[in-house]
Design goal:
The protein contains 8 helices and 2 strands; from the N terminus they run H-H-H-E-E-H-H-H-H-H. The chain is mainly alpha-helical. The protein has one domain. It has a two-stranded antiparallel ribbon. Helix 4 runs antiparallel to helix 5, helix 5 packs antiparallel against helix 8 and helix 7 packs antiparallel against helix 8. The protein starts with a helix and ends with a helix.
Length: 235
Amino acid sequence: MASAGAFAGLWIHKLPKAARAVIPFSGGLLVGVALFGLLPELASEIGWLRGLPVFGAGYFLLMWLDRRFHGHVVSDGGMSVQGFNWDFAIPLLIAASLHAFLDGWGLESAGTGTSEAVRVTFPIAVVLHKAPEGLALGAIFLAALRSRWKSIACCLLAEAATFAGGWAGSALTPHLGSAWTNYPLALAGGCFLYLGYHAIESEWRRLGPRAAFPPAVIGFAGAAAIQTGVRWLGL
C-alpha cells in the first residue's frame, strides 16, 4: 500500500491544475499522520509526559539540521520547496525508514500475539495509514530530487525497512520487549511533523495562502479522518 501510494504521488501532479497543490497537500498528509496517527498512539502507550517531549525533540532536531545545512530553492513544473534536494531528502528518507522499521517490528509482534483481534486488526490499521503516507512521500521526494527513478528508489528503500523491522522483531522481541520502540517512533513522528509543516510553509511563501492553504487542509483532514476512523473502529 505504501509503494502504491508512492507511485501515485509521483504522478499526481500531472492531473489538471494539480501541480501546485501536490506539495501542500502532501505536507498536510504528513502533518495529519503525525498528529492524529503517531502522537495519540504514543500517548496511549507511554503517556503524554514521556511521549510528547521525545516527539518534540524529533521536530526541533530536524528543524536545527535544516537551518544548519540549508539548501536552495528547487523548482520543476510548478513543484518547488525551499531547502529541498538531498539536504532535505536524506532526513526524510531516514525518518520514513525508521517509521517503516518500527511498523515491521509492530506487525511481527502483533502476528505472534495471543489476541486474535490484535493479529487481525493491527495489519489493517498499518495498511490504512500506509496509503496516505506513501502518497506524501512520493510527491515530496519527487519535488526534492526531480527524478522519478530516484524518488521511487527512495520510497522503496524506506518501505523495505518494514521487512528489516519484522526480522528484528522476530529475533529481538523475546530479549528486549517492544516498549522501547515507542521512543524512536516518537522521534520519527516529530520528524514527519516538521517535514510536513516545512513543505506547507515553503509553498505558502512561494504561492501565497490562497494556493497553499486549501490543499494543505484537505490533506491534513484526509489523514486525520483515516487515522481517527481507524481508532474509532477499534483497528
